[in-house]
Amino acid sequence: xxxxxxxxxxxxxxxxxxxxxxxxxxxxxxxxxxxxxxxxxxxxxxxxxxxxxxxxxxxxxxxxxxxxxxxxxxxxxxxxxxxxxxxxxxxxxxxxxxxxxxxxxxxxxxxxxxxxxxxxxxxxxxxxxxxxxxxxxxxxxxxxxxxxxxxxxxxxxxxxxxxxxxxxxxxxxxxxxxxx
Length: 180
What we know:
single chain; alpha+beta; four-stranded antiparallel beta sheet; 4 strands; globular
C-alpha cells in the first residue's frame, strides 16, 4: 500500500548570489531572428513561495499580455514577437523574473520592459478575470491524468499538496496581489 512520507527534498547547491549572471542576453549567431532574454533577480522575504509565485505571475500577466492595452501596439511595431514569454521562479532568498523575445529592437525592448517593471499596475477586474481563468484551467486539467500526475509530483517536491494549492488559488483576494 501507499505510505505517507515526511521526507523533505533537500537543496544541496551552494547559496546563489543575488546578482544575475547574464541580466541581458542576445543570441544572433546562426539564427534567422535574434533571440534575447532579460532577467531580474529580486530579494525575497516571503514565507509562501507557491502563493507568491502565482501572484507574481498574475501581476506579470496583467502588465505583459493582451490584458495591457499597450501590448497590441508592441506586437504591431515588432517590439515583441508572437514568441514573447515570461516566467518566474521564487526561491528562498530571491525571485527570478525572465522575459524572452525574438526581434531586432533589443535596446527598445530592454527600455520598455524596464519601464513597465518600474511601474507595474494592478487592477481588480483583471485580477478576478485571471483568478477565474487559472482556477478553471486547473479544474479542467484534472481530466488529463498524465498532466495531473506530473503536476501533483511537482507540487510534492515544492512541499505542497496540489489540492491545497487549488484551494489557495480559489481563495485568493485582490489584497493578496497588492502585498507581493
